[in-house]
Amino acid sequence: MSFRYSFQQIVDLKNNERTQAEWILSEAMGQLRNEETSLNGLFEQKENLHNEMIQATSHSVSISNMLLMQSYMNHVDKQIARKHQDVKQAKHIVTEKQEHLSVKMIDEKVWTKAREKAHNQFQFMVAKKEQDALDEMATNRFRRLSY
């Protein structure tokens, strides 16, 4: 007699939901890494532009070129500000997906524990039936030998 859990499909479903939540979290974390990499690139771009402006001031450069560099610096600053918002939003999404994963993991654990409990009860019942059968055999043998 083998163990068959009547709610095994639910346990499998909860396992699949947890796996899917892990994938979604992984995807959100990848998006966060992309946003952070992009932000770091903007900071490097700003630093390079700042160094160019410092070098330009040591040489004779036209005011229009300096204004152009300053205008580009302002543009990069605006991009950095937008990218900070993107990173903040990506972090928020990662937090939401982590919470979602936690809920799915707890849900799966509840069903897995219920399955384990049912399996333990099944094993106990099988052991009890075996013991009862052995007791019955011992009783019958004792009766035969005592007559």
TrEMBL record:
Family matches, as InterPro entries: Flag_assembly_chemotaxis_eff, Flagell_FliJ
Location in the cell: Cell membrane
Keyword Nucleotide-binding appears in the UniProt entry: no
Keyword Protein transport: yes
Keywords: Bacterial flagellum biogenesis, Bacterial flagellum protein export, Cell membrane, Chemotaxis, Membrane, Protein transport, Transport
Highest taxon listed in the record's lineage: Bacteria
Topological type in the membrane: Peripheral membrane protein
Family according to the record: Belongs to the FliJ family.
NCBIfam families assigned to the protein according to its UniProt record, in alphabetical order: flagell_FliJ
Name the UniProt record assigns to this protein: Flagellar FliJ protein
Taxonomic source organism: Paenibacillus allorhizoplanae
